[in-house]
Amino acid sequence: MYSGRLVGMALLGAMLGTAAIGAAQAAEPPLKVGLLEDVSGDLAFMGMPKLHGSQLAVEEINKSGGILGRQIELIHLDPQGDNARYQEFGRRLLNRDKVDVLIGGITSASREALRPIVDRTTTPYFYTNQYEGGVCDASMISMGAVPEQQFSTLIPWMVQKFGKKVYVIAADYNFGQISAEWNRKIMKDLGGEVVGEEFIPLGVSQFAQTIQNIQKAKPDWLLTINVGAAQDSFFEQAAAANLNLPMGSSIKIMLGFEHKRFKPPALNNMHATANWFEEIDTPEANDFKKRWHAKFPDELYINDMGYNAYNALYMYKALVEKAKSTKLEDMRKVIATGDACIDAPEGKVCIDPKSQHTSHRMRLISVGPKHEVTVEKDYGTIQPYWLGEIGCDLTKKNDKDQYTPSHLPSKS
Amino acid sequence: MSAELFSVFYQFADVFAFLILSAAGLAIVFGMMGVINMAHGEFIMCGAYVTVGLVNLGVPLPIAQILAALTAGIIGMIVEYLVVRRFYKRPLDSLLATWGLSLIVTQSMLLIVGSAVRGIGTPEGSFAIGGYTFSTYRLVLFGCAVAVLAGLYIIFMKTRFGVIARATMQNAAMAKALGARTGRIYSISFGIGTALAGLCGALYAPTMTLIPTMGATFVVESFVTVVIGGANVLLGTAPAAVFLAMIRMALNASYGQIIGQIGMLFAVILIIRVLPEGLSSVLVRRGR
After folding, report:
1. Per DSSP, what are the bridge partners of residue A360?
2. Partner A, chain B 72-91, Cβ-Cβ below 8 Å
3. Closest residue in B to A262 (Cα–Cα)
């Protein structure tokens, strides 16, 4: 009996050995990249560049030999801006297709819908948008800019240039609410005043009352963090009513390319801080734009979401090749060294070990009456420092939580 | 003070125009003909896209808007002939058929025209009263809404076509027996309804972002207005819009857009509960 089991184990070992050799000799199976981006529905105009950016990166990486010699297979599903579909498709990609990495999501609502599902797996998840910040979750790597890179630069500049009174128009969901909270905190630190805040349900397109509320409150400038095609109608209606106030935002121009979608001068005097906008004029950026437009000649604008989506695949490649593994824990060991960097079209960007967010070179841009974009200030590289400062350290502890200025980690 | 008063009127006029223009076409198609037209928003979108397309070709805005309304009307008559005609006795099936149509149209537009089209800009013109500045074009919209109401009243109450149309909607078999060409009446009525939807899109096109799903922003308001207007469409839609506009305007001004939207829909629930026949049932009874 004993010897029988031994023989069996030896046989099994021999079989496994040959199987391993066989796999090494045959072509490696492709790496599966699951992508969830809206290419229909209210946010399709932003999601399309994200899909294109991913496709461009996959094509380039595959042409130059893939990742660790394996080709990439991109599996894209379109959740159509519906959070329930995000969850359904997320489960399908993670559990049925068994993707090696999950990328995507536009709104913060869709990201928060996906995150608990990703957390139950060991699959890495890349979120490729700028957002309201604060997610401290070991499964998630954030490629976009966060408030300490966008608001902590933009708001002091707006206060200094235009004045201390701000009126906020924000989309009524977690992104708008938490961004408005950031604005309140930064304005308080600066001794400024928030003279009005209005939260708009997604899909609302009529703003005559809002415009008059703004005129009644007499702000020096507006913070516009309204989201989606319907809410963007605000700009046209405000221009028609001759509202004529300076505006600041963390999502306009580089993300929603309103200056390309609206007739000038609707976006005149808009300001934003961005790590990418198509008007960046450096050799690396121009080379990137040339490759993009060669593949997608009809692209109206290469927005920062599409750009970050492109970078996400190169960052994934860098992490996998340094870790020599597609496992999340091995990739995180690379991140923990602080050496997870790529040379992106904006310059070198690195993942911060504590928060798994990305450093960015930030520039403040403004839009003129003919919708021309000018760079007002170059801040250089800004680290995503806030989460680390408040006590999120993913190298030690996985919080799986989203923090805001009013929801900080409990001191333990 | 006068600035505040004018501001209140302006806000009321703005919401009223939005409700009337988005609901007028549906009032005929759904209210009179009983077709639950889920593609109503897509006819609005059609009007908007045709307007922007024509303006980009160099056609002056007002002419582009009229042509856009006519285009939506003609497409409506084709749709009536090909699809809707088969469902007059099956209202629930017409809901499915037109919903399917709506999905096909929005997705096709996305594939053919793309996810975003560059806007054409609102016609210049603003004026100041007190500390406020207003867009002149919004008052033009209000004027158009009143004109649409007047036009509908004249067509359906004062013309021969209107009498026959109302007779057909009430009792098609009897109207046919008396010599009315009911098929044509249905076709023309549906065409007028979709032309008005197209007009709504054409009028709002300069003020909005154009995307294939833009019709959705109008659909809830239009159905709600028609439903609480009640069975008598011509007498119901206008007071329904006045009533909803007052509620929404007051709540928007005091508590913001979220409460404005919730409050308006809450009022709708109340009215349907208290007056299942809609506002026109009260008005018509008083009139008798």
Report:
1. A382
2. none
3. B119
Q: State residue A412's pLDDT score.
A: 56
What is the predicted pLDDT for the residue at A226? 95
- Determine whether B150 is exposed, middle or buried from the number of CB atoms within 10 Å of its CB (0-12, 13-18, 19+): exposed
CA B238 to chain centre: 12
ipTM value: 0.88
Task: Verify cis geometry, omega within 30 degrees of 0, for the bond prior to A124.
Answer: no
Strands A341-344 and A221-225: unpaired
Cβ A278 vs Cβ A253: under 8 Å: no
Across all residues in chain B, what is the average pLDDT? 91
**Residue A81: both structure tokens together:** 């801006």
State the average pLDDT over residues A7-36.
62
Summarised one tens digit per residue, pLDDT across range B115-146 is 878 889 898 888 998 889 999 999 999 999 99
Q: Which residues of B touch A299 (CB under 8 A)?
A: none
Q: How confident is the model at residue B96 (pLDDT cuts 50, 70, 90)?
A: very high
Q: At residue A5, does pLDDT exceed 70? A: no
Dump pLDDT digits (tens) for A297-343: 989 999 999 999 999 999 999 999 999 999 999 999 999 999 999 99
* Encoded tokens for A220: 């020096």
* Cβ <8 Å between B257 and A199: yes
Contacts of A39 in chain B (CB under 8 A): 110, 115
Tokens representing A45 are 């105009």
Per-residue pLDDT of B101-112, as tens digits, reads 999 999 999 889
Q: Name the pairing type of β-strands A360-367 and A101-104.
A: unpaired
Q: Which pairs count as long-range contacts for B256-264, CB under 8 Å and 24+ apart, including other chains?
A: B256/A198, B256/A199, B256/A213, B257/A198, B257/A199, B257/A200, B257/A201, B257/A204, B257/A209, B257/A210, B258/A172, B258/A199, B258/A200, B258/A201, B260/A209, B261/A201, B261/A204, B264/B224
Question: Of the candidates B11, B126, B217, which has its C-beta nearest A242's C-beta?
Answer: B126
**What six digits make up the tokens of A382?**
């800004």
Q: Answer yes or no: do B253 and A263 touch at CB < 8 A.
A: no
- Which of the residues B45, B257, B262 would you substitute to probe the A interface, choosing the one with the greatest number of A C-beta atoms within 10 Å? B257
Cross-strand pairs, A77: A36
Q: Decide the pairing of beta strands A31-36 and A247-249.
A: unpaired
CB pairs under 8 A between A and B: 134
Q: Suggest the residue from A205, A235, A268, A370 to mutate for an interface test with chain B (most B CBs closer than 10 A).
A: A205
- Is residue B244 predicted with pLDDT exceeding 80? yes
Work out the average pLDDT over B25-34: 90
DSSP, collapsed to helix, strand or coil, labels residue B132 as: strand
Residue listed under structure tokens 């009139």 = B287
Q: For B157-186, what is the mean pLDDT?
A: 92
Among B102, B112, B115, which would you mutate to test the A interface (most chain A Cβ atoms within 10 Å of its Cβ)?
A: B115
| DSSP per residue, A354-386 | TT-BB-EEEEEEEE-TT--EEEEEEEEEE---H
Q: Which of A256, A255, A249 is nearest to A271 (CA)?
A: A249
Cβ burial of A63 (10 Å; 0-12, 13-18, 19+) is exposed
Closest CA to A31 of A93, A65, A73: A73
